[in-house]
Amino acid sequence: MSAKRREFNKLAFVSSDAAEAEAAARRLIEIYGTVPPGDADAIVVLGGDGMMLQTFHRHMSEGIPIYGMNCGSVGFLLNEYREEDLIERLATAEISVLHPLRMRAFCEDGSEHDALAINEVSVFRQSYQAAKLRISVDSTLRMEELICDGVLVATPAGSTAYNLSAHGPILPINAHLLALTPISPFRPRRWRGALLPNEAQVRIQALEPDKRPVAAVADHTEFPGVVDVQVREDTTIELLIMFDADHALGERILAEQFRY
Predict the structure, then answer these.
(1) Mean pLDDT within 52-63
(2) Of 11, 75, 81, 205, which cross-links 134 as Cys (Cβ 3.0–4.6 Å)?
(3) In contact, 125 and 131? CB cutoff 8 Å
């Protein structure tokens, strides 16, 4: 017996504030109509990768498939923009399940903060002084002292974002891995990071925080003055991202590894 095909009769359209994206949203609403995102069979995002991330964060726990069409610059997480046959494209699209990272940050002032990241959690230096960090994985000390501009933990979906710019590895979308990548390491200079199982729990502690203050960032949510950051994948949250069958995220990530 074949699997029941999803139906996409009720669509919600959201766009960035770019003129091109807003105009595209108006045209698509005229053709297909629209409903509030909470009532939709799918949310169609018009913009760039940043707008996709914002939309995922707004609807993090709703389990609604999200399909992006590129009206921005990079568009790694989006499909090609076309107005025709949208319902059929949605019905035949491949759905990938993403899990966000959950960051818990403890600050010098005693405050605690919790945030989710789809791409990466980063710890950065806040001043001209390099950060001095200690890294543990699953309660085992792995690096006594890392002097650097920072360090990040990236998901497979985020491995082609800032992680790639920091010379971290590209991870296949279905890999049960996280990338731990240093940002401009000074000592040990040759350390390029590590690949971790996705169930690993990473702890990053700031050494000499008074002299070398650092901030923690989960995607676009930042907390300054942190002394202890704990990161793990949150498998209780499933994010559904849709790609055209000839534009699947797994293939795009694989192809990116052969660019030069």
Answers:
(1) 92
(2) 205
(3) yes
Number of Cβ within a 10 Å radius of residue 149: 17
Q: Is 5 inside a domain boundary?
A: no
Active site residues: 49
Are both 91 and 211 inside the same structural domain? no
- Domain holding 112: CATH number? 2.60.200.30
Kindly state the DSSP code that residue 114 receives in the 8-state scheme. Answer: E
Q: How far apart are CA 219 and CA 237, in angstroms?
A: 16
Q: Reply yes or no on whether the pLDDT at 26 is more than 60.
A: yes
Length of the chain (residues):
260
State mean pLDDT over 206-235.
97
Cα–Cα nearest to 219, from 37, 20, 52, 44: 52
What local confidence, expressed as pLDDT, does residue 172 receive?
83
Burial of 42-73, coded b for 16+ CB within 10 Å and e otherwise, reads bbbbbbbbebbbbbbbebeeeebbbbbbbbbe
Q: How far is CA 108 from CA 39, 134, 216, in A?
A: 42, 16, 12
Same domain, 90 and 114: no
Average of per-residue pLDDT values in the chain: 91
CB 181 within 8 A of CB 165: no
Q: What are phi and psi of 207, to 5 degrees?
A: -95, 140
